[in-house]
Design brief:
Blueprint: E1 2-11, E2 14-23, H1 26-31, H2 33-51, E3 57-64, E4 68-69, H3 71-76
Antiparallel strand pairs: 1-2, 1-3, 3-4
Length: 87
């Protein structure tokens, strides 16, 4: 499933918006479309954050297909870090 994701971010006081087309797995989309798109949006926001030099970032708005607001879902996503340390 292809979706259009739009983000409005505030990076250290500089506000900007970006829009892009992304692929979301059909199975994930059928189970929970908002969460599936939110995961893709989160990954894209992380990429934008790294490209900006890892500066302070505030997510102001995230939508998909111009009508579905998933801002709060994206803000709640946290990366899964595997803990494989021996202690």
């Amino acid at each position: 499933m292809r979706v259009v994701i739009e983000t409005k971010l505030n990076i250290e006081g500089n506000r900007g918006s970006s829009r892009g087309k992304f692929f979301v797995r059909d199975r994930d989309f059928k189970d929970d479309p908002n969460f599936a798109v939110a995961v893709v949006a989160y990954e894209w926001i992380q990429q934008q954050w790294r490209e900006s030099g890892c500066r302070d970032l505030i997510i102001e708005m995230v939508t998909w297909n111009e009508e579905n607001d998933i801002t709060e879902i994206v803000k709640e996503i946290e990366p899964v870090v595997e803990d494989d340390l021996p202690f």
